[in-house]
Amino acid sequence: MAINYSFLFLFLSPFLHLFLFDRSDKVEAYRFDEITTNLKLQSHVVSLNSLTPAGVCSTPAQGSKNLSRLLQVTHKHGPCSPVKEGKAKIPSLRQILINDQARAKSINSKISNKDQVIDSTVKVPANSGHSLGTGNFIVKIGFGTPKQDFVVIFDTGSDLSWIQCQPCEGSCYDQQDPIFEPSKSSTYSNISCNSPSCDQLKSSTEYEPPCASTTCIYQVTYGDNSYTAGYFATDTLTLFSSDVFPKFEFGCGQNSQGLWGSADGLLGLGRDQVSMVSQTAQKYKKLFSYCLPSKSSSTGFLAFGSEAGASSSAQYTPLLTESSNPSFYFLTMTGISVGGQKLSISPSVFTTSGTIIDSGTVITRLPPAAYSKLRSAFRQAMIKYTPAPPSSLLDTCYNLAGYTSVTVPTIVLHFGGGTDLNVDQSGILVQASSTKYCLAFAGNSAATDVGILGNNQQQTFEVVYNVEGGKLGFGAGACS
Ligand SMILES: *[C@@H]1O[C@H](CO)[C@@H](O)[C@H](O)[C@H]1NC(C)=O
Ligand SMILES: *[C@@H]1O[C@H](CO)[C@@H](O)[C@H](O)[C@H]1NC(C)=O
Predict the structure, then answer these.
(1) Cα 183 to middle of ligand 2, angstroms
(2) pTM of the model
(3) Which of 298, 367, 294, 382 is nearest to 336 (CA)?
(4) Which positions are catalytic residues (predicted)?
(5) Top-tier CATH class for 311-475
């Protein structure tokens, strides 16, 4: 039954010749380039120096962006921070990881509480659940008339914005700027107890607002035992000197304690009604973006409205809403590749837990089945380096004494819509001690715990939140 195709070959040979030989040089050269590029793409050579904080702030150019329309984003601690003692009070990785674990836990308790069938025999404390740890990145915003500038943590994992206010009736912590004095702002008003805004507060803070005479009171307790409480109020919010939002609803904190560093308060960028994103929707159309710098010695940006996503070619993935958790930004994660190889993880692993993106969680949390695959592939690729004991939740560590640079595999997170996040090299290893470096990912303890795309893995990308358009984008190389 063998068919002799030689006649075909003879017939086609002039064309084959043309194709195979005349063009072969170019074709082969092109393929060779492509292969070497691909091989290069599968690993990063990371200079260990680049993972150690530098002592001097360098502000890189922001490309074609309009600087007067960007809020400068800095690490809370470090040489670029406007907070003066920022540099002195750098927390240890151990402390950061403890806080981070508290935040991840509180995100999960907030998400799972809402889904639970209420058991009438269990009394839930009034403010249980609404508790996220403190974020890490700060911007400067203006409040009041005349405007006063405040340095605040911005947080996509919570909604209510607040600043410390005089008189500190409970206790106020030491902050960077003079504490806001409502009596000196001509546009300040308390929100009254019987206003719809006061009713709405409950949905955003899970806290039934009580009243002080007729004034609505807010209270937020965060997972790391930080808290803030005070009057729910309105005043003018000013961004970029030019964008003015009268009657912006915020918490005027009379009593706040916790791990706020010396930040003056918090800017809530969740998606619930009281969030800054919702309150400025008319002007900014619920569109914002940020780029988180990879080092505390460099700066990123926070942009709103048309400036967000305008100058980077972001890849988008659908942004999902969960009606039971209207505050969080849910994404569809579909897979992970290490060193260019897609890991075999059943898609149900990701759908069981769901995934949110959060600016305040440091280390990305994965479902246990996904994390164990990532860890095995990473360890395999790092086989030539000496393992070191775990550091808190980071269980894949190396002793890199004597190395100035290491070759680490690329890690790509795959999302719905075919969008890939090729994690920057600054988001693969974190420095745990002078010679110890660990994989900057962790596994959840339960398969049902939500996956969290943390800020370490978002570094250097412009992350574009197009809430009205229902999509979230990653634009590579937007800051360093
Ligand atoms: C940058 O933004 C400012 C403030 O809105 C505006 O006046 C200026 O024209 C913008 N510059 C460019 C180059 O777009
Ligand atoms: C806001 O309410 C508090 C408590 O009722 C009150 O002490 C304060 O004077 C009020 N501030 C303004 C500006 O009305």
Answers:
(1) 9
(2) 0.86
(3) 367
(4) 155, 358
(5) mainly beta
